[in-house]
């Protein structure tokens, strides 16, 4: 079972707010504004949207990019101990 699914990655990439992050909270991956992530969840930040600029800079995000990033971020979440 994936901890980070493609839909969560898509929400991160397509968010109207440029200052958001994927965070693992209570067993699920959510997209939150960075300023709303409290101290206890800082350690569970998987990726900030600002960290994936090169994908967004190249035009529309493809399904292949979303799937690939979801697999990579799933591994990150597992490494964080989610």
Question: Which features does this protein show?
Answer:
82 residues; alpha+beta; 3-stranded antiparallel beta sheet
Could you explain the architecture of this structure?
This protein is α+β, with helices and mostly antiparallel strands. It has one domain. It has three helices and three strands; from the N terminus they run αβββαα. It has a three-stranded antiparallel β-sheet with strand order 2-1-3. Helix 1 packs across helix 3 (63-80). 22% of the residues are buried.
Q: Which structural class fits the helix and strand makeup? A: alpha+beta
DSSP helix fraction = 25-40%
Integer average pLDDT: 86
Number of domains: 1
Give the CA-CA distance, first to last residue. Answer: 12 Å
Shape: globular
What portion of the residues fall into strands of 2 or more residues? 15-25%
Major sheet characteristics: 3 strands, antiparallel
Number of helices: 3
Strand numbers in spatial order across the main sheet = 2-1-3
């Amino acid at each position: 079972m994936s901890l980070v699914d493609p839909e969560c990655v898509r929400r991160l990439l397509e968010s109207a707010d440029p200052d958001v992050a994927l965070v693992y909270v209570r067993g699920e991956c959510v997209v939150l504004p960075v300023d709303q992530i409290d101290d206890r969840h800082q350690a569970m930040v998987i990726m900030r949207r600002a960290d994936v600029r090169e994908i967004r800079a190249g035009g529309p995000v493809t399904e292949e990019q979303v799937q690939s990033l979801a697999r990579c971020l799933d591994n990150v979440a597992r490494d964080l101990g989610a």
